[in-house]
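hi!! sorry for the late reply, been swamped w classes. u asked for the two structures so here they r. pasted raw, havent cleaned anything up. first the sequence of the first protein and right below it the tokens
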Amino acid sequence: MVIKHQVVGYEQFVEHMKQYTKKDLVYVYYCGSKLPSGESWCIDCVRAWPVIEPKLSLADESAHFVYVECGDRAFWKDMKCPFRKDPSTKLMVLPTLVKWKQPEKLEGDQCEKPDLVEMLFSDD
């Protein structure tokens, strides 16, 4: 089964990602931070997660899956948000699911489409 990680905030994200090399297969899921209820403030992220989570079983068992909480609504909406400015992320919308250092990317409601999520995880 894929190796799961969870990071909160930009600084923790940057530090966590330093451990991976180009040879590592890493998927990154960017979403809004969780509220006390345990769900993200981002309703699109709430809808996407039940589609993404079961499809993780399709990923190579040596792959890493990094769940990134990108901050609260105000932090994310700020156009100077470091997730938006970082050339390695280039985030425009939440949720976003990417294959790290690869061109494969699903954004927004694409993350709610089981066939697209399946293709991303099973495409080697």
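now the second protein. again sequence first, tokens right under
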Amino acid sequence: MNRPLGQTGEAVAAKYYIQKGYLLLNHNFRTRMGELDLILYKDDTVVFAEVKTRSRPGPILPAEAVGPAKQRRLIAAAAQYLQNSPYADSRVRFDVVEVIPQNGGWQVHCISDAFSC
């Protein structure tokens, strides 16, 4: 995927969450285990959102790119983030957010609690 498309998708997803009352804690947080696209907070829950953006709809859903190996890396990266975070005692949730163009805008499909630790 090209970088500008991915950045646009992440910005669209961040706006989606903010409109729903979430606080954006971090964006593109890098750890040695990998990158966390969006880290958000609401109702004593830290949400780690993996954003998958596509330039057009296709037969394979973007969320299908978040398989078991990717899930393990995200969980490890989240654990690293939480070690030094004031939110370390909060609940944790992993979402996968699909961002696909639609009618001149973007369609956002959030799979809340897509996988667990």
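hope this helps!! also noticed smth abt the second:
The two ends are 27 Å apart (CA to CA).
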